[in-house]
């Protein structure tokens, strides 16, 4: 697999929403395979905002709740499968995830906030997204890294859609 990485500057919440929508449009179709997105960043970095925007762009209607207290929220997608949004901030030990019933059979997409807390139990990411408040506090910095062939295809589709003016590729 060729390493792929993209760095973006997100000026505001609307730009984060636009990134989520672009990720939804360019998500590779993998014949029943699950795509996993690991969302990294400090509190307030925009992980939940990005996840909500992606889910909304995938057609999820109604409330998109934060899984901070429930740990996992499941959303139906077209075609009968689901997207799972996990927030592992409150997990004390990765072994606790065993009791959530995450066998993955119904899911085609996992959006995982604080994945480092599930290390050793979680499957590896296809796409890693690192979000941080930009220097000076204006906007966010998003670094997207492909960790699988599916992730590389996703980033290639994203770059093809948005063009070089909007994405600063770093690979």
What does this structure look like?
It is a single chain. The protein has about 170 residues and is an alpha/beta fold. It has three helices and eight strands. The protein has an eight-stranded mixed sheet with strand order 3-4-5-2-6-7-1-8. A hairpin with a 5-residue loop joins strand 3 (about 70-75) and strand 4. It is globular, with a radius of gyration of 15 Å.
Topology:
Layout: E1 5-10, H1 13-26, E2 35-40, H2 47-57, E3 72-76, E4 82-87, E5 107-113, E6 127-133, E7 140-146, H3 149-162, E8 168-169
Parallel strand pairs: 2-5, 2-6, 4-5
Antiparallel strand pairs: 1-7, 1-8, 3-4, 6-7
Radius of gyration: 15 Å
Structural class assignment: alpha/beta
What is the count of β-strands?
Answer: 8
Fold-level CATH name: Rossmann fold
N-to-C span:
13 Å
Examine the secondary-structure arrangement and name the CATH architecture: 3-Layer(aba) Sandwich
Number of domains: 1
CATH class: Alpha Beta
Number of helices: 3
Estimated helix fraction: 10-25%
Largest sheet: 8 strands, mixed
Following the backbone from N to C, one meets helices and strands in this order, namely EHEHEEEEEHE
Dominant shape: globular
Strand order of the largest sheet: 3-4-5-2-6-7-1-8
Low-confidence stretches: 164-171
Strand content: 25-35%
For CATH, the homologous superfamily is named as P-loop containing nucleotide triphosphate hydrolases
**Average pLDDT number:** 84
């Amino acid at each position: 697999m060729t390493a792929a990485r993209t760095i973006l500057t997100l000026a505001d919440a609307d730009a984060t929403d636009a990134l989520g929508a672009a990720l939804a449009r360019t998500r590779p179709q993998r014949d029943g395979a699950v795509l996993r997105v690991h969302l990294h960043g400090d509190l307030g970095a925009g992980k939940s905002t990005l996840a909500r925007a992606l889910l909304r762009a995938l057609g999820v209607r109604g409330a998109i709740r934060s899984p901070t207290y429930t740990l996992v929220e499941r959303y139906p997608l077209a075609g009968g499968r689901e997207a799972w949004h996990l927030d592992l901030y409150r997990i004390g030990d990765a072994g606790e995830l065993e009791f959530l019933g995450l066998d993955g059979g119904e899911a085609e997409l996992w959006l995982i906030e604080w994945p480092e807390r599930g290390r050793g139990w979680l499957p590896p990411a296809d796409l890693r997204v690192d979000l941080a408040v930009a220097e000076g506090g204006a906007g966010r910095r998003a670094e997207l890294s492909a960790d699988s062939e599916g992730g590389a295809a996703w980033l290639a589709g994203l770059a093809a859609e948005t063009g070089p003016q909007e994405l600063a590729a770093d690979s």
